Fold each of these.
Amino acid sequence: MQPFAQIERLERAEVLDRPAAVIRSTVQRLLSDRRVKDALHGVWLGHPLHAALVHVTLGSFLSASMIDMVGGKQRYSSGLIATGLVLTPPTVAAGWTDWSASHPDQQRVGLVHAATNGLAITCYVGALRRRARGRRGRLLSLAGAAVSGMGAALGGHLAYHLSLGANHADRVRDLVPPGWQPLAALADLPDGTPVRRAAGEVPVFVLRRGQEVTVLADRCPHLAGPLSGGEVVGADGDARVVCPWHGSEFRLDDGCVVHGPAIAAVPRFEARVVNGTLEARIVASAGAPTA
Ligand code: FES
């Protein structure tokens, strides 16, 4: 049996749903300021902030435990534990922020991931406290490493198996057929209401506003929500589509993220009308159409 196969059972552990609901509403209440929430998701970074921070935080803790394991100098180990503890609050805050906008199976695994890491941090705090009393605290440091490893395995499952933090729209560029693709007769498109059409086999978001047409991938980069089911807000250069699942906002002009939890832009298409038919072709990257 694969050693980590049991983690999948956590995804279906509905017993975790009640505590998850309580914690989720608390986190959402604490994150009422959208600028703080966006910052913790990593919108400003274009990368999940939790994933960026966790490497340094966990790396500091594990390095400390390695020093303790080989009998290295305690002041180096203690310095690394202290570094990990200083970085713990922003790492935890970013993690809970991402967790609060995720699917139920991800939240179940995430809850155990957080509890495991909480136990690991308690071990490291205990190690420092013992050292303050003149003891070595070595066993607690090693226990912290063992528990951190379990927490990291759960975090890896969330990222690599359940794709929390991945860009769910990036592959659209590979799936769409090259060149111009017919989408619909322009006259059949409603004015001001997004609809779903297909470029080849790939669903696309189409919004006609008068003679202007916006075409984006119909797949939110956060967790693949259907943008064509979302609301359009704002006007002119500030017009945005709001994802119906967790409220990410994308600028219609260029697909860029205005508000998270998404941290990546939604793929954009060029549009043209030929003999009354709307056609679109994928833009390879900012402003560069494909051949
Ligand atoms: S799927 Fe989560 S914001 Fe779009």
Amino acid sequence: MSAAANDQQQRWDKKYADAKPVTSAAACEVLRSNLHLLPAKGTALDLACGLGGNALLLAEQGLTVTACDISPAGLRTLAQTAKSHNLPLTTRQRDIEQDGLGEEQFDVICVSRYLHRPLCPAILAALKPGGLLFYQTFCEEKPATVGPNSPDFVLRTNELLTLFAGLRLRYYQECGPLGNPAAGNRSEALFIGQRQTRKKRV
Ligand SMILES: C[S@@+](CC[C@H](N)C(=O)[O-])C[C@H]1O[C@@H](n2cnc3c(N)ncnc32)[C@H](O)[C@@H]1O
């Protein structure tokens, strides 16, 4: 593992060491609000899962879930929560920025509050044909007190649409500061895209 990855791991391990376990209620909004788009069965990946709210919700929906993260502390807590709720899921400690994701592995991939732009082509490739990507993370119009402020970790206007232009758009929201800023999600962009299905040969 690189020195930078090691720093990341230690930083998140420390944070998760004191954290209370979460439940599926902690899943990101784009997933919670669009459960009706999920397939009835199949494989799902919660990428950079942290304490795994998305993974728990996907497992509750009957999907076969893998949750991966660089932090063993977060994954340990998630594994205990899943066991106590009788939800089967697999946890994997991975440096996803180095290790790759494999090709056409998942019917659903969910990413929340994590951004590493060079990984986007690998995320696309890891979706099976017809697979769905749920992505939600911080965007530049957010209040400075919410989330990270480094441009490396914050989306530019409409950027998820560009990063995942290869997917068929199923849902997009980026409210910015319009109207009543006390209502709605002002900090994050929400995206759902679908990988093209293979054309049937005749
Ligand atoms: C802001 S947290 C988001 C966690 C979760 N997705 C959520 O929405 O609550 C970012 C997560 O990315 C993970 N992470 C950072 N760099 C990583 C890497 N190179 N490989 C795997 N996970 C990484 C961290 O351990 C952390 O759990």
Amino acid sequence: MLRYLPRHRRAIAVGGATLVAGQALAAYAPQLLRHALAALDRGVAGFEAATARDAAVRFAAAYVAAVFVQGLLGFLTRRTLIGASRRFERDLKRDVFDHLVALPLSWFDRVRTGDLLSRLTSDVEAVRFSVGPGVMYLAQTAVKLPAAVVAMVAMEWRLALLVLVPLAGIAVVVRRLSPSVLARSRAVQDRLGDLSTKAQESFSGARVVRAYALEEREKDAFRGLNERLVTETLGLARSRAFLSGGLRLTGDLALLAVVAWGGRQVMGGTTDAPTLVAFLFYLDMLLWPMISFGYVLASFQRASAALGRLDAVLSTAPEPATTLPPAPPRPLRGALSVRGLTFSYPGAARPALQDLSVEVPAGSVLAVVGPVGSGKSTFVSLLARLRDVPPGTVLLDGTDVDALPLGTLRAAFAFVPQDAFLFSASIRENVAYGARGTPDPARLAAAVDAAGLAAEVAAFPAGLETVVGERGITLSGGQRQRATIARALASDAPVLVVDDALSAVDTRTEARILDALRHARAGRTAVVVAHRLSTVRDADRIVVLDGGRVAESGTHDELLAHGGWYARTWRLQRLHAELEDLA
Ligand SMILES: Nc1ncnc2c1ncn2[C@@H]1O[C@H](COP(=O)(O)OP(=O)(O)O)[C@@H](O)[C@H]1O
Ligand SMILES: [Mg+2]
């Protein structure tokens, strides 16, 4: 937190100065009023009527001026301090986001997206509230309260005692009741979160809900959560009403005490009426700081919990750019070597990859095939160090990937992941995402064409500018997959990695894409994970994974001759294709 302060020192200095001046003036203003009334009092008594009126007018004018200046100072205080807190919020949000983006992939396996969103929004807001308005209210009270107390004690100490005891009572009441208000508002936040999660799931799972005719069950579940929400909300309203009613009552009792006891003093001649009026003003002035004091303390508790949650993010180490001394930069050609790679996911019972070795010369094609769960996706994700690998097990152009800065390493890969993810943006923006810098339109068009998407895109209302995803049209699974292939083709990274992206297209489209890929590859290294073996028969080398180990390895012909999983699967798939052709 302290790191952010120096940036705002000007605002803090200006806001602090106007705050102290404004509050000191506020504490002094009732004295002016008292003098004005006292002068009038003397006027009524018949002494120096004209001078008394002049004096009263002068004091009254001074009072009005004081109130005006105080308002101006209050405005400046709010503007500088609250403004600074908003800029602090922006900086904190940016830093948390920057940090999240740099966290390792393994970290995202363990957190829920909704939780991250609430850290980025409501936790940051809770911290902002306490450092902005919270500290401001506290500082105002810290200046105004002692000044007002000194003034009141100096005027009439017994009356001061009479006012301050119930006021202190208010702070105690708020301090005691605010935790329950706080707990209840937290419960309301949680229930609200449950409700929106439920709604979001019902909507995004709309197909499943319809297909299984589960509308009634969804309605019931929503109604139940909605009911729980309203119960908590009503509880919160009750606590709040109790608190504010109690505060009003305490304030009014203090007022009553001042009027009753002070009135008797005035009648008895121990105190004068102007002093009593000044006291009433002080009472009113101190009521709010006393009430806000408890809230401010509660907001500090909330902020400290929020800070804890933010700190859990900020203190997680980001992915190191390199874990070995960085190698001197040089153009990458895209030769890959994997040597004795064993890899386990955290908490997994057995390794996902075991003692895996393979050489991929620059410009060659490696195919990775094998049963579901054999480690194909894990293998390709480790090539670009999406997860940490043991040193010396994965090398790009003979350099340990740990010695290549992450930016350099990952820029060497054009990756088509197994799950085709597109941003809510135009097709052009999605495809251009793979090309760093400003993409050349001809290159984008060529990528879209090579991915076999050109004809469909041309048929869309806005062509390449058609927005896809939540705010636009919905692409079919195959179209989405081809858009991610176009994204990889638009980049000129030396290594192309395709993780089972061709399963979602039919055989004819696949053949077309493969042809285009061969063309667009132009000397690039390719690592292709495939389900259909016909996809990979021309690969320079085919590796069959089974349970994380290399079960077979060789060219298509070698593997057929070997008579293992590959040969069996090849025959089955051929038979299948022939049957399809007959049908
Ligand atoms: N993020 C992950 N965390 C933990 N285990 C995983 C994760 N991803 C995959 N696995 C496990 O690793 C093994 C290999 O998975 P994967 O590489 O996806 O296989 P394939 O792509 O060949 O189907 C599986 O047993 C799978 O359950
Ligand atoms: Mg996979």
